[in-house]
Amino acid sequence: MTFSATPIGGSIKVFVPRDAAARSVGADKVAERIEAAAKATGQQIEVVRNGSRGMLWLEPLVEVETPQGRVGYGPVAPEDVDGLVAAGMLDGAALTVGAYLGVVEELPWMKRQQRLTFARVGVIDPRSADDHAEYEGNAGLRKALSMTPAEVVEEVVDSGLRGRGGAGFPTGIKWRTVLGAESDLKFVCCNADEGDSGTFADRMLIEGDPFTLIEGMTIAAYAVGATEGYVYLRSEYPDAVETLNAAIRTARDRGWLGKNILGSDLVFDLHVRVGAGAYICGEETSMLESLEGKRGMVRAKPPIPALEGLFGRPTVVNNVLSLATIPTILANGAATYAGYGMGRSLGTNVFQLGGNVARGGIVETAFGITLGELVSDLGGGTASGRPTRAVQVGGPLGAYLPVEQFDLPMDYEAFAAVGAMVGHGGIVVFDETVDMSAMARFAFEFCAEESCGKCTPCRVGAVRGVETIDRIRNGEDRKKNLVLLDDLCDLMTDGSLCAMGGLTPLPVRSAVRHFGKDFGA
């Protein structure tokens, strides 16, 4: 599903992203210079601050609305603006300078995608309720309100949607459990504590289309019988915090939150809570502890949050992308969504390309695209121009994969079969200069730094792991210490209370297995 706009008389619409990535490279100044240049030439324009299209190597990306579609120019520096305007940029002219890109929707990067969750991101003004409504916003919520809560839950089950936060648990099954739980109060919690290295899709969705997240959470509330919702958002995302809070205020004013939502009997309100920067709060029970005002530490299970979650009440806990995908599932039907993907990995996922990559950004496509297509074709290989040596998929707890496995399809089961995980969809690229023994050491170091400390295998095991790899790197009894390292990985995998310690061995073992020479093996 894609949206494109055509001009409707009056002033020319010029789009300059307000996404944090675009702002970091001068988008605000570019917008100011465009307004000043248009005023100086007497041209009537309206500058719209949209979200990013996800082509981060082209930011700031300026788009001009024309009868043929939105024509792009990028990257545009503030000092480029006057020359581009003089050359006809505000008329959508096909300039001979390098900044001219053509119709954005026709660019290869965009045409390779199937944008469902990100359909509106980069297209609309994220703070405009009118834009959200114009581009089929709330269609999913209206459809849900015409169904029974149980029917909504089963629609999500039938879609095959699995949690996009990393665990891949079926979303509808979680909702079914909360719906069936007896309680006078239930919650919907969105975990937006996006702490994995190489991941930024949650941030881009919130900054580029916050009303879709609000709509998804409202549908979840209706489906399970919740009346309160919380978005746990990391403090390192100040732009996302501001954008989401503004959208929530607007939604309340429009009757999209609060009492009698869209004229129905539904009552649901939403609040933002800002985390303090603990990676462990990406784990659902640690997040719930933090929301309750406690130190972010993992809870023992059972009970599961679906039965005893926030303040001991039944709670839906989902990731941003999971909840933001719900509106398109309800609007278009479970069968349509399940028509994308492969095997048990149905629908689309938002993959994020980062690290040493030529074309970093986000790609939303159906499950089944290969790792090589993402890294080499869409990503363009390394930014350094050197050969790719390894990629880490799934954040700092994900496995390192060599180029020999680039034919691996992006699929939960296919990755699990080779000792890897898709996780949140982050892909970090490394060239031939990377020392994989150092990267394995970093996995333990990261775990030692971010462990909540509740269980010994994680708290102590990570420290012992750093010490063991240091001995291997220094050439001390390498064979003996490699055996010790393997035993330590077994202990952490089997004995840790949560995925923090349980998955830390994944990058370590994959680095040893695929890049043994870096360990002196």
Automatic annotation (TrEMBL):
Keyword Thylakoid: no
Gene3D superfamilies in alphabetical order: 3.10.20.600, 6.10.250.1450, NADH-ubiquinone oxidoreductase 51kDa subunit, NADH-ubiquinone oxidoreductase 51kDa subunit, iron-sulphur binding domain
Domain of life: Bacteria
CDD domains, per the entry: TRX_Fd_FDH_beta
Record InterPro entries: NADH-UbQ_OxRdtase_51kDa_CS, Nuo51_FMN-bd, Nuo51_FMN-bd_sf, Nuop51_4Fe4S-bd, Nuop51_4Fe4S-bd_sf, Thioredoxin-like_sf
SMART domains: NADH_4Fe-4S (SM00928)
The keyword Iron-sulfur belongs to this UniProt entry's keyword annotation: yes
Family statement: Belongs to the complex I 51 kDa subunit family.
Protein name: Formate dehydrogenase iron-sulfur subunit
